[in-house]
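Need a sequence for this fold. Nothing fancy.
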């Protein structure tokens, strides 16, 4: 059954969001890995990211901040990219550690050599539109929510540091960056992709939030708009705080989920339809870093792989 919140959001907001997508695509190069990719991801449209030769990464796990971008689209009409760095392939985990500024981990259960890249840092600024927030809250059923006048015209700032992507196996190659591919998403994976695993490590996003702006509530609505049910959203918010949530992107087509433990830390294992993209995505946090493990094989491998990260 169609999510009523999603239906109302897209009916009211689609024209403005469509114009912003066009602006972003014109203003930000596809290879930059910045706001254009993240914003399209927030609309549940997979935009494949152009990467350097030898590094093949489906857009669903390329470090995009889907929730962050969706919150930005809800609260303001003006969004600017304050920082966007290109991704850079590196030869080893040690090289990734030096470039990213934190200890990069690898999956000890995998004996094959991974492809490793440092995902560039990025930041965005959003000018708050109070009337737009009030409309969104009302349509989402939060009619009693109060939005102070002081937030109108204020600026929400978010910044995500450099991240690390470690990829194993025969993963699908990126597809051409066309409107049709953005709508359809990546092609269905083949049986050859079953050994593909992608391990993303992202330091938590920092945010400067205008006083009076209830970004916690907005994050909850953003999760629902991304395809989560109210129960899934509640469990997700219980497992992850705001900064971690702002550092995440959710997979397409959530079928089910399980609460799990990764080295003593709470996590969420999401099972997807597996038609276009990974069959599972596991998310957890530790020491101020958000970890995402996505694979095209059996979801039974997810927790043991995650526990082997060192």
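Here you go.
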């Amino acid at each position: 059954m169609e999510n009523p919140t999603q239906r109302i959001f897209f009916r009211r907001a689609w024209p403005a969001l469509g114009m912003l997508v066009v602006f972003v695509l014109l203003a930000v190069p596809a290879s930059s890995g910045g706001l254009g990719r993240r914003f399209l991801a927030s609309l549940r449209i997979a935009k494949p990211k152009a990467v350097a030769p030898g590094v093949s990464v489906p857009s669903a796990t390329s470090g995009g901040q889907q929730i962050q971008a969706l919150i930005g689209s809800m609260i303001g009409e003006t969004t600017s990219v304050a920082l966007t760095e290109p991704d850079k392939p590196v030869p080893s985990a040690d090289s990734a550690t030096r470039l990213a500024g934190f200890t990069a981990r690898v999956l000890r259960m995998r004996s094959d050599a991974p492809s490793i890249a440092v995902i560039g840092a990025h930041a965005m600024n959003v000018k708050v539109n109070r009337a737009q927030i009030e409309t969104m809250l009302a349509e989402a059923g939060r009619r009693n929510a109060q939005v102070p006048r002081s937030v109108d015209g204020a600026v929400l700032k978010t910044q995500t540091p450099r991240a690390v992507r470690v990829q194993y196996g025969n993963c699908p190659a990126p597809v051409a960056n066309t409107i049709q591919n953005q709508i359809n998403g990546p092609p269905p994976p083949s049986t050859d992709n079953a050994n593909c695993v992608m391990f993303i490590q992202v330091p938590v996003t920092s945010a400067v939030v205008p006083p009076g702006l209830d970004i916690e509530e907005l994050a909850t609505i953003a999760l629902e708009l991304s395809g989560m049910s109210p129960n899934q959203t509640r469990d997700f918010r219980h497992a992850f705080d705001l900064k971690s949530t702002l550092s995440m992107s959710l997979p397409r087509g959530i079928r089910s989920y399980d609460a799990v433990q990764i080295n003593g830390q709470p996590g969420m294992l999401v099972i997807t339809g597996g038609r276009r993209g990974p069959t599972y995505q596991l998310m957890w946090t530790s020491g101020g870093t958000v970890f995402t493990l996505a694979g095209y094989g059996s979801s039974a491998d997810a927790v043991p792989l995650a526990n082997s990260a060192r």
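For context: The CA atoms of residues 262 and 306 lie 7 Å apart.
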